[in-house]
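agent> fetching stored inputs for the zinc ion docking request
agent> found them:
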Amino acid sequence: MKTNNLGYPRIGSNRELKKASELYWAGKISADELIDAGKEIRLKNWKLQAEAGVDLIPSNDFSFYDQVLDLTLAVGAIPTRYHELAKSNSSLDLYFAMARGAQKNGQDVVAMEMTKWFDTNYHYIVPEFTKNQKFALFSEKIINEFKEAKALGIVTKPVLIGPVSYLLLGKEKEEGFERIDLIDALLPVYFEILEKLQSENAEYIQLDEPFLALNLNDKERNTFTKVYNEINKRFPKIKIVLANYFDCFGENLTTALALPVDTFHLDLVRCPSQLDDILESGQLNPGTNLSLGVVDGRNIWKNDFTKSLELIQKATAVLGENRIFVAPSCSLIHSPCDLDLETNNETLTPEIKQWLAFAKQKINEIVVLKKFASKEVDIKLSAEYERNVVANNNRKTSKLIHNNEVKARVSNITASDDKRKSTFATRRTSQIDALNLPLFPTTTIGSFPQTAEVRSWRAKFKKGELTTQQYNDLIEKETEATIRFQEETGIDVLVHGEFERNDMVEYFGEQLAGFTFTKNGWVQSYGSRCVKPPVIYGDVSRPNPMTVKWSQYAQSLTPKWVKGMLTGPVTILQWSFVRNDQPRSETCTQIALAIRDEVVDLEKAGIKIIQIDEPAIREGLPLRKEEWATYLDWAVKAFRISASGVNDDTQIHTHMCYSEFNDIIQNIADMDADVITIECSRSQMELLDAFADFKYPNEIGPGVYDIHSPRVPSSEEMVQLLEKAAAVIPVDQLWVNPDCGLKTRHWDETKKALIEMVAAAQEMRAAVENIVSL
Ligand code: GLN
Ligand code: ZN
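agent> prediction call returned; pasting C-alpha cells
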C-alpha cells in the first residue's frame, strides 16, 4: 500500500508567493528574487511531505500563477499577440503578460481569459486554440522541477493535466474546427515531455483528466481511449496515475476502466459509491491500482478514520493491499495550508479546531490511514486513532453545532413560506403606488468606494485604536456624504454605501451563529489573489438584526428611498467552507431563514426596497447536467424563503453578475424577485437576449457600464445601451444602474460616471415622453 498526494498548496503557509509576486510586479524585487521565493516554497513542500512519509510526492504542482497556463507555455500554445514578447523578453515576463496583460514601453497586450476551474473557486487561464494550432515544447518547467526535487533526494511524481482535459479546458478562437481534433498535433509534445522525464528516471507520472467526471460526447470519449493506448504503447515502463476528481466517472466508467494505465485515482469524497461500482464491475484490469481519494481536498473537516478505513478495507479485500494507494480526494491546493498557524483561541475555539484539518494535517491523515489499513499500526493501540474518534464523536453531539430551534424551524417550513403573498402583477400595482418612481429609475448595486481611509478605520477599530463610538461616527459621516452625493446626482433609489462591511459574506458570517473564521486559512483564487472563506460549523441562526441600524440611519437622512442591502443564502453558502455532516441544501435553508428575518426587520424599520444579492447562484451548479435540477430547485427555494416574508408593496431586488444566464433563465424567473440587476455592459447587452427571448416577466436593470474599468463612460454610450435594451424589453420594466458594486472604484470616476448615468436615464425618459405625446 502507498500514499499518493495529488498536489500541495503553492501559496506558502504565510502567502509568501503572493507577497513575492506582487513585489515583483511592482518592480520592487528582481526576477531572481521571485524565482528564489518559488524555489523555497517547493523545497519546503517536498520536505514536509517526505518527512511525513508520503510515497508519491507531486512535483510541477507549483506554479507562479496557474497550472493550466504553465502547461500552455510548456506545449508552446502561445497566442500570436504575445509572439513579440516571446522573442525578446524574459520567459517570466512573457508568462505574466499572458496571465495579466502588459502595458509598458509602448507595448499593450491584453491578458488571456480566466475562468473557474470546474466547480471550485480557483480560476485558470483559458488556453486559446486556432484552426492550425501548432504545439512545440517551449518550457521545461516540468522536467526542471523533477530534477530540482531529485537533487534533494526526493523522486517525485510529476503532475500535469492530461492532453484530453487540456484541450477541453481551452477555447476555439476561430471558426471551422473542434479543439479536440488538435489531439494529434498536441500528443507529440506530451511524448517529448514523457521521454525526458523517463530519461530522468521518473517512475510515476500523474495525468489529471477531470473531464472524465463530466458529460462527454462519443468523440471525446474515444479520444481518451486513443490517447492512453498510444501513451502506453510508447512508454510501457512509465506508471501513469490517471486522476479523476470532483465527481463520479458516471457513464464514462467503462471507457475509463479500459484505459491501460497503472493507477486510477478516484474522488471518494464526492462519489463514494463508485468504489463499489468499480469493484463489482469486474472491469478493472488485473494489476491496475486504485488510488482512493478518501481525505477531502476541498474542505477543512478532519477525516473520519473509521469511515475511510471501511472504504480502504473494502478495496483491499478485493484487490489486495499492494494495489491500493491512500490519497486526498483531489489536489490540496483547494485547502488552506496549516491548521497549526491558527492560534487565536477566541474566534477559532479549541473545540472547533479539533474538528478541522488543513493541507499539512491532511497529509498526515493519508499517512496514518495507510499505517492503520496496512496494519503497520494497530488502531486499537493508537492514541491518534482514538483522538480522531473522540473528535468526530464530539462534533456529532456538540452543543455548538446543534440548535433544535433552528432544526424545528426548517422542518416546519410550509409551502407558503417560499411564496410572496401575491403574484408579481398584483405586487407591481402596490409597488407603483407605494414607491412612486419615474420611468427608467436609477440606482446602484450597493457599495460605494471602499477607500484606503475607510479600510484604515476598520483596521484601527479591530486593533482597538478606535472605540466603537468613534468607528461608528466615521462610518456614519461617510454614509451621510454618500446619501448627499446620490441626492445631488439625482439618483432615484439610494443605497447607504456598505462602508461598514469588510466583505459581502464575512460581514454576515460574523453576525450569524454557526459561523467562525480563521486567521490564516487562505486558499488561492487566482494568481496572487487568495480568499479566506468563513467556516460554517453549526446550525445557522441570526441572534440580532445585522444591517437594520445602518439602513435605518441612511433612510432617516433622506426623503428618497434607501435600498436595504443583503447577501443571499446561496452566495453565503457558496463562498464559505460548509459543514459536511448534513446536505448543503439544509444549511442553505437555515441561512435563508436567517436572511428572511433580516428582510422582515428591514421592512418593519421602514425600508421599502430590499436587495438580496446572489452573484454566486450559478457557481453552485453541479458538474453533471443531470444534477442541475435538484440544485436549482433548492437554491431557488432558499432565495424565495429569504425574500417572501414581506408585504406586496415591499420591493425585492436581486443582483447577479458575470455569469451566463441563458441556460438557467427559467430558474432566475422562478426566484420571483421584483427587480433583477445584472451585468450586461461588457457584452453590449447581449446577455439581455436571454431575458428578452424568455419574456422575463419582472423588472430588470441591465448594467449600463462596466465597474471594473476606471474609464468614465459617456451618457451617449449608456443611452445607446439602453436603447438596445428598450428594443427587447418593455420600457416600464427597465431600471438604470451600473454592472456591479462600486467598492473598487475611486470617488472621482464614480461621481463622473453616475452623473452621466443619470443624464442617460433622463434622456430615455424624455424620448419616451416624446413618443407618447406624438
Ligand atoms: N452589493 C454588493 C456590492 O455592491 C454586490 C457585490 C457583488 O455582486 N459581488 O458590492
Ligand atoms: Zn455584482
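agent> quick read of the result: The chain has two domains: 2-343, 443-773.
agent> awaiting further instructions
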